[in-house]
Design brief:
By secondary structure, the protein is α+β, with helices and mostly antiparallel strands. It is 18% helix and 17% strand. It is elongated, with a radius of gyration of 20 Å. The relative contact order is 0.20.
């Protein structure tokens, strides 16, 4: 089961926007904020948290194909 992923967005009195990604690792955090960053305009600073350098959790499905011996 995947961990909950959230964006924490704060807007200061001066209009500065801070976006904090919670529950995502690796490149996933950048993927989550990409559209928001593009909408907001100029990024004045960018900080990678330790979670960025951790391996992303991936979900995989295993498919097992059984051979039908009657249909050879």
């Amino acid at each position: 089961m995947s961990k909950k992923q959230e964006l924490e967005i704060s807007i200061s009195d001066t209009g500065e926007v801070t976006v904090n990604v919670l529950g995502a690792k690796g490149k996933k955090c950048m993927d989550m904020t990409k559209e928001l960053e593009e909408s907001l305009g100029v990024i004045t600073s960018f900080e990678k948290k330790p979670e960025f350098y951790e391996q992303e959790e991936t979900e995989t499905d295993t498919v097992v194909q059984k051979e039908d011996k009657n249909n050879v």
